[in-house]
Amino acid sequence: MPQSNGNHGTANVVADWTAAWADEAAANFSRMARLPFLWQRAQNVVKGATPSEVVYEEDRIKLLHYMSDTPVAYKTPVLFVFALVNRPYILDLKRGRSVVEHFVNSGFDTYLLDWGVPTDADRFLTLEDHINGYLMNVVEHVCERTGSSDVNVLGYCMGGTMSAMFTSLHQDLVRNLIMLAAGIDFGSRDGLLQLWTDSSVFDVDRFVKVHGNCPPWFLQNAFLMLKPVQNLIEKPINLYEKVTDPDFVDDYLTMEGWLNDNIPVPGEVFREFVKYLYQQNRLAKGTMPLGKHQVNLKNVTCPVLNLMATKDDLVPCSQSAAFNQLVGSTDKQTIELKAGHIGLAVGSRAQKELWPQACQWIAARSEPVA
Known about the structure:
Elements: H1 2-34, H2 38-43, E1 52-58, E2 61-66, E3 78-81, H3 99-105, E4 110-114, H4 127-146, E5 151-156, H5 158-169, E6 174-180, H6 192-196, H7 204-211, H8 216-226, H9 228-241, H10 246-259, H11 267-279, H12 282-285, E7 288-290, E8 293-295, E9 304-309, H13 317-321, H14 323-326, E10 332-337, H15 343-346, H16 348-364
């Protein structure tokens, strides 16, 4: 009798193992069958979800105006200013993961500055050219178009740093300023980018002399190496395991499409950003040169909302938090979210918690339409 139970138990183990092996084999076959179609699906990813129109162009830049059936409820328009490193449609990635969508649906007349793709002819354009040139022209156009005397500005990453400089020099044109994962104080060594750009190991003058504009492949590889195991091993494995989930695949391809849609950075802008900010920390010190001007963040006196991600490897919270202490504003608030640099904009938690709160914050400080 015991021998019979033993044989029966062994048979059950073998049967369970065989069934598990068959199930996994079938699952792998289903995954493999879908892999050849990923490339085609990637080509069909839509870049930008909210209907828009180009209302201003200058050289390579464009200004997008977002259209909606929701009536405009506030007199002061919102202008999104993104970085020069990637494409700005991350702010309007897809339905349900769009920062733009939140503001449009909340009744804001919403605009986005697309810096375009720089060519070799743009290599000598400086931060001054972009901030007191292009950005100034865009702000003046939005004010003229809407009849408003100022704008609400939301600056993301490098775009936030540039927005802070613009506001410091032109406070009369900015009603409210939202900083999204924006670097200000580069004095710490909390992130790998601070270590990699240290003057002892990175000669930015020589780099720009050799390359002109900062090449997209250089930036892409640097971002990948911030989390090499996650980016090069874990993400592909996760895609393979969930390739039969259409919603996951759509999110994955949309995000990866943006992450790999890198563009060059004008050489002089790259030089100034690395030298004056990462290496010399001149913005936080109040000695940041911008053409004939010197940027003093104490001149920022408008309401400030500083949004930071606690898991941000690109712009650690230590780089952003100092902004609230450096500005002259009395109305200033900080919100930290458990997210990464990109998740702070498009993550599901940000969509549920952060952006409704940010829209309420700016709505309370904006003049309603009569």
